[in-house]
């Protein structure tokens, strides 16, 4: 029976990234995953009809633009190719209004200036602020998090940074009200916090919205050609070129502990895979699975398990995958059709606040924030000629349904709710934003939060970020202070997934950062 220097649990893009660096350093590395293919939240499948390739979760390649991993691993040699759209995203309004973020900042400013010339010039300054700070942001993202002591010392030494610290605590409403005079602009910038399940009045949302939008202005809202799956497939190919191994359809149920150290993992069928004497385990699963299920109270202590059980997951998602007979026409005009993403809401932060309040009280939102991903408009290879594929992400829905703000749905179980709620949403979007959407649908597939969790155990409660992205669960607090440096109480077991710094999304950063910690502690750096 083979034994390995490193076993990585979970073949999502972070687990594969970590494994690539471990294998590059000479460790005999195995990645195991319960799903039928690699990728985790970065898979692309023909979920609706043959030839219609949908990104199952992640579509935009955003913060990954700041990662050194693609260059360090030469992923272009293994099939990774990026597409940069002319229009990064658009925010459309019920009256047919639109603001678009173009490649060039001047064009974006012109789009904002249709509503407010002052806001357009404010955006020029904010976009420039990001360019000046980009190197330090990349360093922050691609390094283990600084401790609270280090952060405090830095603030003391550089008093001008206190403005940035203040901004990092502001809500979307506070920050956008401070910078912009027009509600349409506030939505155009602020809605990006919703991608991390941050409501308009949640702390920390303003800074996150700026990071997202200014990054996209600078480097583009890129997509991976032929689907996001090409990223994990490229990572897997690199790993195998370095002698690493991958096993899919293999679910880990626990980490074997002997003499206070991990000795291997056990699979659901009872098989045990062993480590060498100085081997390590890195987990790309969500942190609750790692601490509560794989390690357990007997190995990490009752206090840590109790804290992990109280961990906040954030709001659930619902996804509608669509195979379409042709491109969607938007009331707002052709720029929306050419956009990678379309955000569709009324021009009101209060609208989003009500939306989140309904979700967090357990009710189906009456008009949730729907992200429309124009997959095939950006990458025609995703659909047959003349056809289109779209993914609609309903950004915030309750995992447990206790009511219905639409007034139309009586059921309370997702298996009974998801299709009538999808009917309601498609009718709403068609009537309000995209008049030909409903007539184009050849086939749709709806995944509720419960479906997502069943397909992928780390999508806890139908979430996609391995934990809510709030100030007390970020940086040196993510996922918990005791686990914030990718280490666990078991000395050779590490975190390498989105539950650790810098968090969710396609970044490769948690995997790369964890590998640096592991290699430093094993003397292989």
Q: pLDDT under 50 segments (min length 5)? A: none
User: Helices and strands: which structural class?
Assistant: alpha/beta
Helix content range: 25-40%
Looking at CATH, the homologous superfamily of the domain at 3-42 and 228-311 and 465-522 is FAD/NAD(P)-binding domain
Rough outline: globular
CATH architecture of the domain at 3-42 and 228-311 and 465-522: 3-Layer(bba) Sandwich
**Overall average pLDDT:** 95
Number of helices: 20
Our estimate of the beta-strand percent is: 15-25%
**Top CATH class of the domain at 3-42 and 228-311 and 465-522:** Alpha Beta
CATH fold-level assignment of the domain at 3-42 and 228-311 and 465-522: FAD/NAD(P)-binding domain
> How many E-type strands?
21
Quaternary organization: single chain
What is the terminal separation in angstroms?
Answer: 28 Å
State Rg: 22 Å
Largest sheet: 7 strands, mixed
Account of the protein in words:
By secondary structure, the protein is of the alpha/beta class. The chain has a domain of 182 residues: FAD/NAD(P)-binding domain, CATH 3.50.50. Helix content is 38%, strand content 20%. It has 20 helices and 21 strands. The strands form 5 sheets. Strands 1, 2, 10, 11, 12, 13 and 21 form a 7-stranded mixed beta sheet that branches. It has a 7-stranded mixed beta sheet with strand order 8-7-15-17-18-14-20, with helices on both faces. It has a 3-stranded antiparallel beta sheet with strand order 5-9-6, with no helix packed on it. The model has no long low-confidence stretch (mean pLDDT 95).
